[in-house]
Amino acid sequence: MRSEIAAADRKFAVRRAASAWRRAGEIDAATEAAIAALYSDDRVRTSKVFRVLFFIFTWFGFSTAYGFGLAMLSAFGLDWDDTAIFAGVNMLAGVAMLAAVEVLTGTMKLRRFGIEEACVWIGWSYLLGGGLWWMVEGFDAGFSVLLISGAWAAAGLATLILWRWATPGMGAVAALALFSGLSQAPANHLVWLLVAGLLAWPLGTLSVAPHVSPEHRKRFAEAFVVFVVMFYFAVHVAVIEARLFTLARWIDDEQLGHSAREALAEIPVGATAVGLSLTAMVLMPLVLLWIGVRRRFRPALVGGFLAALVSAGSLADRLDLRPVWLVLLAGGALLVAAAMMARRHFAGRPGSEWKGLTTLPLVEDRESLQTLEVVATLATLSPAARQVEAGGFEGGGGEFGGGGASAKF
Amino acid sequence: MPPSMRSPEVAEAIQKLVEKGLLLPATAAPLLRSARGELLSIRGELRALLYFGVLAVVAGVSLLVKENLDRIGPVTIAVAIGLAAAACLGWTLRRGLPFSWQRAESSDWAFDFLLLLGILLLGADLAYIETKFTPLGDAWSYHLLFMSLVAGAFAVRCDSRTSWSLALSTFAAWRGVAATSVAQGVAELEGRRESALRFELLLCGAAFLALGFAMRRFDRKRHFEPLTTFLGALGLLAGLGLFALDPQENWIVWAIVFVAAAAGLAAVALRARRFGLFALGALGIYAGISRLAFELIFQAGCGCFWFAGSSVGMIALLWIVQRRFRVEAT
Questions:
Q1: Cβ separation of B61 and A325 shorter than 8 Å?
Q2: Cross-chain residue pair B17–A357, CB shorter than 8 Å
Q3: pTM for this one?
Q4: Which residue in B170, B197, B315 is closest to A61 by CB distance?
Q5: pLDDT at A256
Q6: Which residue of B has its CA nearest to A13?
Q7: Out of B124, B275, B282, whose CB is closest to A47?
Q8: In angstroms, what is the C-alpha Rg of chain A?
Q9: CB-based contact B284:B239 (threshold 8 Å)
């Protein structure tokens, strides 16, 4: 990344913080303006809403223009049945878009603007897509070769993009692509576990390192989350019992490892492996929560919480706990009780603080959080609509759950 | 891993701002702790924990009633759920701030979701009673309207935007409107000549917009207004959009009305600097004009040309708008 972009991002982080302080009532508008003047930068930025709109229209506009361009070139005699030409044009378009990003971020100084971010994603996907198309059609490559080369190319390109522009999402993409590639490595399960387990720590460290630029820190945090999820995936008992890692090596088989699956079904998974897996499924959420609390590291805290939920659900399913309504009621009551206990625990302490954790809102973006909660409520707790028929309503039978639940009798 | 230095540049800046006199040392101290990662708010995480708990309890109650309708006995189930709902609602009413038409949100982070749980349990209980004892008979669907009003009343009394969103979505459900039914409406475009759903969407949209306007005009729970207006605008544009998309209807007229409504929404939203609403209007304008242009241009084989050109046009327009209105970077 250019040093001037990193410096601008640091100033922007201060301006955003000042804006949050003003919204939280810690400072007034005049002070915020003074801070903004003191930490101004030369980048062209916009709001989240405009950023999304710019992204959508850039992607949509390019895609349709590309189709239009292909039709035009075809009229000039280019044969799209020629694999090399089609793949080459795709890759060329990808390179052109990535070159355009240099101009957009360099000369035009766009940052977090949506247009340059869309160009990055278009460039990445066209360059990669063109290359893969060439391999499939030109060399008749098998699926595993395609997966290995595609995954490493995707990871490499995403890492380059991350290094140059720190585009949102690229940290996660690079990490996911890396693990896709590792799925085809010899001793893939062990390699996967080692890479995920050993590299998660340095990635977590980089995501909070002062010498790293703010946007790069976020990308390292993305990668950290993916590495943790991949480690959890690799130790999950369902993955172990289904022998997904063994089957992944049979990906070239036309029946997706059908014969291997049959052969493997004859040999039961060892009790030690299952025991270790179950132990890891219990320990991993605890370790993540411990790290999260001790280091006040939010990604670990959230990861630990979600991993605990998944582990609890998986274990309930494995133990075939019945009836389901009782499991749900007991689980829900347990979560509510845990939250209420935490509430009591924190409320009794000065500043509602314990080990550097607090339940006070501090200067977080409350509006965004509330919006998220409203969206979650609308999406999951809204009642199902009654069936509307042409010409008016007709009763369609009783429907349970006026205030949100919506099971039908 | 070193302690989470959440924002080193902000931590550095705070010290400079104190030296320059822009921040008071007393104000700076907690901000500095937060920036250094010495203090982390887990309010959001604990609320998420509570949310998942509420979700699981409500799902469990739904299944309990469905699977044990005859075994446990209707009165026992109705009383048990009713007591649980009363406990939650009683807790929230006791801990809520005194009623005000202005902002009076409880500072207790557990408040919103316990209120929500109480309302949901009450809704489940009423629906169960309605199904089992059928006091409303053929007018059974009115329990949704009743629940919408109850949820709305609790939301206003306890100043909870989450419960207010539930009240609005329950009202919409009473009128047969939900995200799933809109998707169904799009899927059935070709097959139905008349769709009551579209009129219901328009009705809900208009009702929510009117409610939002009244909230602002009479300064009653003004902070609920953005959500109410947004859902209203969404309903209205969805209803008009379905009419405009239907090839069997007089779609040109509907498409023109759709574009006009979206343009009006975008203009009003821009003047009020409400960019979420503006985005809805802008997307509506683009979709409506594309609908009109598509019929005319696509037959000439210029579909790609239109979408490519119009996207560039939209980018240019948005660029001008965001410069003209000095949109703040976020």
A1: yes
A2: no
A3: 0.89
A4: B315
A5: 60
A6: B10
A7: B275
A8: 26
A9: no
